[in-house]
Amino acid sequence: MQKEDLIAKNPLRVFAQDGAGKEINQRMGLVMARAGLGKTAILVQIALDNILRGHQVLHVSVGASLEKTKVWYDDILQDIAEGAKLEKPQEIRDAVMRNRLIMTFKEAGFTRPKLEERLNDLVYQNVFRPACVVVDGFDFATAGREAVADIRELMTIMDMQVWFSAVVHRDDSRVSANGVPAPCHEVEDLFDTIMLVKPETDSPSLALDVLKDATGCVKPGKALTLDPATYLVKKA
Amino acid sequence: MSTSLDKVRNIGISAHIDSGKTTLTERILYYTQRIHAIHEVRGKDGVGAKMDSMELERERGITICSAATYCSWKDYAINIIDTPGHVDFTIEVERALRVLDGAVLILCSVGGVQSQSITVNRQMTRYNVPRIAFINKCDRTGANPGRVTAQLREKLQLNAVAIQLPIGLEADMEGIIDLVIMKAVYFDGDNGDIIREEEIPAALKEEADLAREEMLDAVSMFSDELMEAVLEGTPTVEMIRDAIRIGTLKLELTPVMVGSAYKNKGVQLLLNAVGDYLPCPTDVKNIALDLDNGEAEVQVSNQPGDPLVALAFKLEDGRYGQLTYVRTYQGTIKKGETIVNTRTGKKVKVGRLVRMHSDEMEEIEESGSGDIVALFGIDCASGDTFTDGKVNYSMSSMHIPAPVISLAVTPVDNKAQGNMSKALNRFTKEDPTFKTFMDEETGETIISGMGELHLDVYIERMKREYGAELKVGAPQVAYRETITQRAEFNYTHKKQTGGSGQYGRVAGFLEPFDGEYEFVDAIVGGSIPREFISACDKGFQKSMPKGALAEAPITGVRVTINDGASHAVDSSDVAFQLAAIGAFREGYLKASPVLMEPIMKVSAEGPTEFQGAIMGSLNQRRGMIVGTSEEGNYTVVDAEVPLSEMFGYSTILRSLTQGKAEFTMEFSVYRQVPKAVAETVIQERLKNKKK
Known about the structure:
Strand order of the largest sheet of chain A: 3-2-4-5-1-6-7-8-9
CATH class of chain A: Alpha Beta
CATH architecture of the largest domain in chain B: 3-Layer(aba) Sandwich
CATH superfamily of the largest domain in chain B: P-loop containing nucleotide triphosphate hydrolases
Oligomer: heterodimer
CATH topology of the largest domain in chain B: Rossmann fold
Strand content of chain A: 15-25%
Order of helices and strands of chain A: HEHEHHEHEHHEEEEE
Mean pLDDT of chain A: 85
Structural class of chain A: alpha/beta
């Protein structure tokens, strides 16, 4: 398979364009799941989809190391290359190297002012101009609504799309009217797209349910599935 | 030296630059009474630390050569090798870790796990060396041992378990809580000589209890007895120490200690831990190859009575001849006896046997297994194995990384030429990562090494120690060439003009290959007679050192021959070698060859306010920023940058960051040079060749 086929056949393409075929460049997205159900893997695949489409991606890891984050990309790329029998896998790896930058922060160190400063550094020094930011490990439980709204404002000003991950805890049963579980049940209006990963009852796969999508790309409901062995996203 | 092997410890002290290795070793020598006064690495008295015996080391405040010494602590005999932290001198770390049984990995409590910490940890893992982590400089502003312990787990994937807590940090550092005995330890006296144990301060009791619980949780995994005792609430100090030792020797646990060598806190406790937790020679499995038995692996016994097996790991050429450092793995070396170099088969007599204390020597009569000593006047190479002739074993040598940077050097006059040759002979013998050769076309002498500092030090040493004043040319990058597609060849070498001639035809193809070189014989039907196949291989291999693009060594080529022709009279080894050389040339240019350059993994660390400038400067150098990590007010920028763009970067970085940032780099991978840059490089090389 060639790189172009990989882009066209990527299941995550459903989020790239709205019903009228217009590219969605700005969005605040959220992937929610219990611990170990593939949030990071989904964010990495969203990042890879953007990279393959020629965009630069900033991957922000809160609380994880640079090496660990890199390994996610290496592993998922390996699985994609094998599954798709890519003709030139090195080409994809080179594209990832050129178009991805990983930034790690300690939990307390990740704030809007800090992120803004770092992004400005990248842009003003002509180092990197990300079209997409993925933020893995943001602590919604302690952050508060204002912090999330701040980041949305920043992304709007900088004309970027941003995807977050959020951990759902089994023992916190709070949920919004639209079914968005805690800790994001009170900030769901700040997000354009919200997905929830949950185990399927009748198969070993994991379902990727769209709880909300204000961009018009997908209807709420089961959009995709996740292979529990490789954490690769597949069509439902 | 004690003959009881279980009381012997052979340890290395390794770390990132400026973590305090030499300062720690100085304290160790002081407390074990090997020296009677402490001198600082960059002290005002100008004397310098004991282990930095070279003038250049004292002037620059860096360790260049590893230095060996020994000491006694309680009833332990400890051989210590203090190593450099700069990646340029990485061979010193390699050779030390090859022969040592255990190591102390030092980390700065402010800097934490830094780039060379990762490299030396990797080296320790390569040689399966159990280690203790010592978080040093807890007296510094910004000290955070908890963060460093977490980094040991995240960045080095070590099961790091704190067995101590500091009492106070930064300027308030007073002492250390030992979580094993649950006591507070203070270091009184001018030089921290007097150890005082007290009850743990009330304010720290809760924290200490929690930390001890974490420690017991982790450590009890290595001892059922301890686990039961913990559940019953009756763990003893002995059980805990035994379990820590088991975990450490299994390489599944890294005990973490804290202190400040400069402020004389924690060193004695570290010495206790070396005895309690690091291996003795018999705890480590060392393998030799039996050369008389098809290189079958044999485990050396560590028994002094068994046939001698010793490894030469370091050479120093001095005024009185060559000093060879050896580690004895089995048997005994005695003064006056004859030993055999298994590589050369030569027998040599042991004239003088000495034990080293930095640059001082102590004559001894014999050295037993598990010992590290030096022999005088024995001509050998680093990595040679010596036996008593009763066995023919070879110990595997150490990993020698390839040099990445070269410089052309020219002596200013004839006297300097002679001295330079002597110096180069000596230095290349002592340091396998320092190489030299004469460029046949330009007549220049080229020296190659691991980095700018590496070469800088040798040029300075040639000037000081040999009076060889040199002119230094532009740094040269070690380019490579490779092919990017398959290409066929069908070449006939023919010289048949009367009398005995030469004839050989070779046909096949070249294709890209993951390794360096592979030859595949796919000849069927005897189109090339069997006796000439190896000549074909030889011819192809002869073509590899100089590529057609920039005369750089070729790598990554698989050559397959599948057809050919020979002549009953005129075919010969030489004819087929020449045919292969011609065939390679023909196929190579059709295979879309490209130039490759060394890419360095660069890690630049500086205050966060300069992060943008640092990233910009690396980006301007065709660098690819991989990522950034925030560590408090400091940020580490990791990037991959071509070596050719990194010359002089230290000056740039210094001026960009008010001298507050530093960087390290090590070789990562070879990558294709961008077309525009490749054309420039090739043109330059052609121009230099014409000159």
